[in-house]
Amino acid sequence: MKIEDVYIWDTNAKWLGISPFQLMENAGAGVARAIEEKFGRGLKVAIFCGTGNNGGDGFVAARHLSFENDVTVFLVGDEIKIRSEEAKHNWEILKKLDFVKIKILKDSSQIKGLNLEEYDVIVDALLGAGTKGEPREPIRSAIKKINEYSGKAKIVSVDLPSGYPSKVQVKCDFAVTFQWDKEEFEGFERIVAKIGYPKELYHLVGPGNAKFALRKKGEHKGQNGRLLIIGGSEDYFGAPYLAAKAASYIVDLVYLVMPEYSAKRITDPDMILRPVEGKNFTREHLEEVLALTEKADAVIVGPGIGLRDETREFVREFVKRCEKPLVIDADGLKAIAEDLSVLNGKTFVLTPHAGEFKTLFGEKPEGSLKEKAGLVMKKAKEINGVILLKGVYDIISDGKVWKYNKTGNRGMTTGGTGDVLAGIIGALLALGNSPLRAASVGAFLNGLAGDTVKEELGENFTALNVAKKVPHAVKWVLEF
Ligand SMILES: NC(=O)C1=CN([C@@H]2O[C@H](COP(=O)(O)OP(=O)(O)OC[C@H]3O[C@@H](n4cnc5c(N)ncnc54)[C@H](O)[C@@H]3O)[C@@H](O)[C@H]2O)[C@@H](O)CC1
Ligand SMILES: [K+]
Fold this sequence. Notes:
Layout: H1 3-15, H2 20-39, E1 44-49, H3 53-66, E2 70-76, H4 85-96, E3 100-105, H5 109-112, E4 121-125, H6 139-148, E5 154-158, E6 174-178, E7 190-193, H7 200-203, H8 207-213, E8 226-230, H9 238-248, E9 253-259, H10 260-263, E10 272-276, H11 286-293, E11 298-301, H12 309-321, E12 326-328, H13 331-337, E13 348-350, H14 354-361, H15 369-383, E14 386-389, E15 394-397, E16 402-405, H16 417-430, H17 435-457, H18 463-468, H19 470-479
Parallel strand pairs: 1-2, 1-4, 2-3, 4-5, 5-6, 6-7, 8-9, 8-11, 9-10, 11-12, 12-13, 13-14
Antiparallel strand pairs: 14-15, 15-16
The chain binds ligand NAX and potassium ion (K).
Ligand NAX binds next to α2 and α3.
C-alpha cells in the first residue's frame, strides 16, 4: 500500500459515510490495545502528542489506556494549533477527565529538564503522515527527550516514529501502523491495527480515485490533454459527437475525425472537426488519420463507425499502427474481435457490455460480482490491456487488480451513454492517467453525471443530458 492509496482510501471511506472521528477512535483504541497486549496493565504511561491528527490518535489512546493505567498526556505545542475537528473533539474530552494528567509544553525550554524516569511506556504521537521536512522545535526537543529513555522505558510510536525519515527520529520499540503495512516504511518494527476500513475499498471506485485522475497538469492550452475521436459513418453522427461533447469538459482540445458526410451535420462550436472524404471510413483514410494522431495524447476509435467490411478493416489496421493510448468502443470492438492480435503491444481500454464481451472473448460474464470480475481479470491479463465490462456494476481490470463502479441508474440504458463513457475515458487517458485509472474513473464520472441528471429529470433522459452534466460531476468530485 502506498501513501497515495491511503489518501484515496480515506476519501472513499468518507464517501461511504465512515467519518474521520470513527477512524481516529479506532486508531487510538488500536494503539491502546497493542500496548496492553504487549506490556499488560497497571502501567505508568506518558503520551507525547503533537497538534495534528497523529496527536489526536494519542488523545484517544490516552482515554482508552486511562481505564486501567496511570496516564499523563504531554501536549507539545500550543493547544490553539489543534486544528482538525476530530483532534479538537478528543482534546476537549481529555480536558474533562480528572484521572488523566495533562501537561502543555509550548517551547523547548520546558522539555529539556523533563524527567520521565517514572514511566513504563512512552507513547510517541508527535508527528505522523503529515510530517513535512526535518522536525522543528519544540517537537525536535521532544523527540530527543523521548530517545534519552530508549532501552529504559518501552517506546511505542503512533503510525510511524516521529521525525521519520529524517535523522532526528524517535527510536521506538515498535510503531502501531493503521490498517495495512506500508511498503515505503523500513527500519522499525510495526504492528498493524485495523481501523475499520471495509474490504470494498480495495475494489470500489469513488471520489478519491477521481480526484487523482482529474488533477490538471498545466496552465496553457493543450497541456491538459488533446484527444482525437475517430467515429461516425453514413448512418451515425451522434455517437462520436456525444463522446466529444463529454470529453470537451475535461480536456483542452478534442478533435473529431469523421466522414465529411456526417461531419456536416455537426454545428456545435465547441467541436474541432477533422472531416475525411466520403461516407464511411476505409483503408484509404489510414495514413491521413494516423497523421492526425501525432498531436493527440489519446485516441478513441469506434463510436458510430459502423460495421461495413472496409470500415472494420480500417479499424484493425488503424489499431495495429496507432501508437497512442486507445479507447476502443462499440463497433470498433466488433472490428477487432475478428483479430485480437492487433492489440499486441498497445496501451488500450476496451469498453464492452456483456454481449460485446462474449463476441470478443467467446465467454459470457455470469454469476456473482466476484465471478464476473475473475473472468474480466483473466481476459485482461490475456490481452495485456484494460477491460471495462459495462453493467449495473461496471467491472474494470488490467489483469492484475479489479475495480468496480456503482454510480449510475436505470435511465442510463438509453442509447448513447456508452459513447459519453468512452469520451470521458479517452479524456482521462489524454490527461495522462493509466488505462486502469482512466477506465475506472470514467465509469464513476459517467454514472455520477447520469445520477445528477436523474435528480432533475427522473429516469427518462437522453445521453446528451448526461454529457452536459459531466462538468457538474467533475465539480462535485473536486469539491468532495
Ligand atoms: N485516515 C487517516 O488519514 C487517519 C489518520 N490518522 C492519523 O493522522 C495522522 C496524520 O495526521 P495529520 O495529517 O494531521 O499530520 P500529523 O499529525 O502527522 O502532523 C501534522 C502537524 O505537524 C506539523 N508538522 C508537520 N511537519 C512538521 C515538522 N517537520 N516539524 C514540526 N511540526 C511539523 C504540522 O504543522 C501539523 O500541525 C496519521 O499519521 C495518523 O496518525 C488516524 O487518525 C487514522 C486515520
Ligand atoms: K508518531
